Amino acid sequence: MTHSDLEPAIVEGALDKVDRRSCRRFPATELLARVKIKSGIFSQHWEDIRTADYNKKGLAFITNQQFSEGQEITLQITLMMEMGNIQVNDVKAIVKNCTPATDTPEPGAYHVGTLFNYAANRHMKSLDTQSQLGRIEGILDRSLNLKLKLSQQ
To answer: Could you list the residue range(s) of the whole structural domain that residue 100 is in?
Structure first.
């Protein structure tokens, strides 16, 4: 699978916005994700987030939590499939942008764009983690291509 740096994102409404992505991203309808929220010095909890799009370099999502640009966050990503799920835990990512979400009915929601931080720790540097995140992209790509093919028939 090859990616063009100039290829537009495949997201509803993406043509209306400036696209800063370096790679094509895929709709993440079958993708579940959670972000770890620190609520004090020693306390934290996981919050479900609504995924917008995905590729092996990063994830975009909608949440009611505001993040700062450059902030490192921890994600849990699960691709739901009939034959079994792919789950990747403790995914370190850096927030690249956090803007008010204008295309959602949820008041106070933010659209957050992240870049996976493959240099963060041993877990993120491991080939297993990198291949799992790449596998998710491959499956989403095949799923999108199949949907497009079926819709043309």
So the answer is: 14-152
Number of domains in the chain: 1
CATH code of residue 82? 2.40.10.220
Those residues with Cβ within 8 angstroms of residue 93's Cβ, 6 or more apart along the chain or in another chain: 58, 59, 72, 73, 74, 75, 114, 115, 116, 117
pLDDT at 59 over 50: yes
Residues 76-128 have pLDDT tens digits of 999 988 888 899 999 999 999 999 998 877 788 999 999 999 999 999 999 99
Domain assignment present for residue 8? The answer is: no
Query: Quick check: is 137 in a domain?
Result: yes
Q: Check residue 14 and give its pLDDT.
A: 40
